[in-house]
Structure formats: C-alpha cells, structure tokens
Amino acid sequence: MLFNSAIFFLFLPLVLLLYWVAQRNLKLQNVILLVSSYVFYGWWDYRFLMLIATSTIVDYFVGIQIYNSKETATKKKWMLASIIFNLGLLGFFKYYNFFVNSWIESLSLLGYTVQNSWTLNIILPVGISFYTFQTLSYSIDIKRGKLKPTTNFISFAAFVSFFPQLVAGPIERASNLLPQILTSRVFTKRKIASGVKLIIWGFFLKLVVADRAAIYVDAVYNNVENHDGITFMVATVFFAFQIYGDFAGYSLIAIGIAKLFGLELMVNFNRPYFAASVGEFWKRWHISLSTWFKDYVYIPLGGNKSKKGRYLFNLFITFLISGLWHGANWTFVIWGAINGLYLIAETLIFKKKRSGLINIALTFVLINLTWVFFRANSLSEAVLIFKDMFTNFGIPYIGGRDDITAPVYTVIAIFILVLSELKREFFNNYLVLPKYLKATATHLRYGIIVFIIFYLGVFGNSQFIYFQF
C-alpha cells in the first residue's frame, strides 16, 4: 500500500478513528497498530507477512534469552544467532542472485563456461532491509546492556511492523520507539497539526519535486546512448533533487503519520545539500541509517580510536557495506566506495571544519558525481555517462513530446524547495513573524503548498525509490 494511493486515504482515517476511540485501552490500541501494520504490509504480497512475523518472533525470543543468560559467552551466542538469522534472511532474498551472477561472470572471464541454472526467481520483500536492521539492533543493544527486553509481544510486534516507517524508514531504535508504544498516548491538537504539516510538505517533496524530476531523469538515464553531456549533467542534478524529494518526502510523511498516532520518530534528513563537506553531508542524509552503520559497523570495527591507517580502513569498509545495503548491483558498491574515498581524502587533507558557499557548492558537485553510479542501470552505462559529460556536447534534451513542460515544472519545484530550505538553514532566526500573524501565515503557506501539489504534482501511484532497497 502506497502513501500516495487512493486506498491509503481510506485506510488511514479508518485506522486513526479506531485507534483514538480505544484511547483509554493501551493494549487494544497496540493491537490496532499491529493489525493495521500487517494489513498495510500484506497489501503488497501476503507472503511477505510470514517473513516479518518470523523475524519478530526470533528477535523477541532472542532478546529475552540474551538478557536472562548469566554467562557472557551464552549472551554472545544468542546475539550471534540473531545476527546470522537477520543477515541470512536479508542475504538470501536480496543478494543470492547477485553473488551467483557475479561468480558466473568471474568464471567466464577466466575462460570457464557455467550455465546460469543456479539463480532463483526470488521476489525482494518490500522493506526487508529496514526491518531486519531494526530488529537486529534490538538484540545487539540488549547484549550491550543498553536496553532491557520487553515481555509484551504485541507491543514488540507493533514496534517492528509500525506501518508508517516499515518499508523505508526511518530505521528506529527500540530505545526510542518501543517505550512510546508501551506508554499511553494522549490525543493533542498540537501534535495532530504538526503531523499534518509534515505530511503536506512530504507530499510536496514526493509528488511535485521527485515525481516531476523523474519524468526527465528516467527519459535520459533509461536511454543513455541518445543523449549528450550537458543533458546528463542536467539529469544528474535533477536526480539529486529527485532522490532527496522522494526519500526525505517519505520520511516526513512517515514522521507526520506517526504524530497522528501520538508517536515520535527520529529526524531522518537535515537539509543535506547545504553541507559544506562530504562528512557533514552524511550527518544530514538518511540519518537513521548513517547512525546505524556508525553504531553497529564502524565502532565495532574500531572506529576512529584505532591507528590512523586502521581508522581510515574502518571508514572505507563501512561505506562499502553501506553501498551494498542500498542494492545488489556493483553500481551501488562503487557508489559506496567513492563516498568512502571522499571521506578518507577529507580526513587527510582538511584538519578543520569547513564552511562557506564555495565548500557547499563543491560538496554538492562531488555528491552529484556519485549519484551517476547510484542512478545508472549498470557500470558500463555509468562509464558512458561520465565519458559523454566531458566529451560529448550537443543539443540538450528539453523533454519529450508527451511532456515538454517537465523540465520547466521541475525547475520551479526545485526553486521552491531551495528557497524553503535556504530560509530554514540560514534565516530561520531572522524572519520571525509576530504571534498574531503566525497562525494566519501558516494556514496560508500550507494552503498554497496544497494548491501547488494539486497543480504541479504527478499523480499515478508511483513507488518511492527506497522501496527497492
């Protein structure tokens, strides 16, 4: 079930009505959360429900066993069981065919012919990369003594499957979300209003910025042989805003919907394209994933407390794994590796924190170069795009016959987004309205945004990019 589908706009009000009618009964509220989350997830494919249910049962049981075990070695064995199960589940569904095909291609380069009979017709379950990380961190945090396991299975299952953030994050820690689910929630107009505003802005990012940019980006990146360097540059910049609008939009909608249920999710994006370095960019982009890799991969490898060579190696490996997490394709591995190399270079060259418009612009260019690998369908296409960017300067593509206005509308959408984020980044403390004007200005602003969504938005049940991860 998609946030931008008609069925969701019937589903959400019904669930909210039942949920708040049961306000005085916490157990019933959590049952409603759980059932609605399973309906939401099963809407894609009911077979996926078995996977998330199994993952929930395993980590619920493992968490209790880790906590109750007296011996450190026994605790480690149970934690290892959780790691093997969750990564095994993720690895089989997401990476089995990738590694088999890579193995076959490697043998063919050595002159061996292997029939491609090892691959399987596997459907990638939506959101599996997200909820396996969420349940895995639960078990690890219990082993580290940072968290006590819950014995309330319904509440734990609701935490794992909470539908607003189930399929594309934010990746929530049990220490943040689970206590909220275990505690009574109170209906407040302020939280509802805050949630609605986030949802509106999230839909602007998705339907107006991301989906409008996608028309041009897809036309170019899905037909790379017929375009020139300038077109690829424009398409790549558009993709930078497409993926930001798509993913940040989803996160804002998820956070906003959670507020409608009286729950708070973590902030997942913080105006990343105003970062003055690649390191700062990764502190602002997909924050829930970046902090997850920091806490559960980078620090266990030794973090920055190791010798400099080892510290840089830890940094590179973390980004390499992050790239592989994003997709079973060598383009994502290269994307992660380049970001890792960026951070290594910054660590070796720059000793002080950078700032200023020049550094912001430079960082934006560097990140855009990596987006080529992220968006390209294959490594060979990425190489062709880079080659044409610097050698093939022809007449830029301005849009197809069906929608020649797509680039124009995309530029308008990006302009609105940049103005809004510019204000928040640099002028938020200066442009303050008197109290008696705030409410009117807020209503007017979001009314205009809703109008823009209906006028410029692309409506067609388009999926969010991160669903494929």
Automatic annotation (TrEMBL):
Keywords: Acyltransferase, Cell membrane, Membrane, Transferase, Transmembrane, Transmembrane helix. InterPro entries: Ac/AlaTfrase_AlgI/DltB, AlgI, MB_O-acyltransferase, MBOAT_fam. The keyword Mitochondrion does not apply. The chain crosses the membrane at residues 48-67, 79-98, 118-138, 198-217, 237-261, 311-326, 332-350, 357-374, 404-422, 443-466. It comes from Algibacter pectinivorans. This is D-alanyl-lipoteichoic acid acyltransferase DltB, MBOAT superfamily. It is found in: Cell membrane. GO terms for cellular component: plasma membrane. It comes from the Bacteria. GO terms for molecular function: acyltransferase activity. One of its GO terms (biological process) is alginic acid biosynthetic process. It holds the Pfam family MBOAT. Belongs to the membrane-bound acyltransferase family. It is a multi-pass membrane protein.
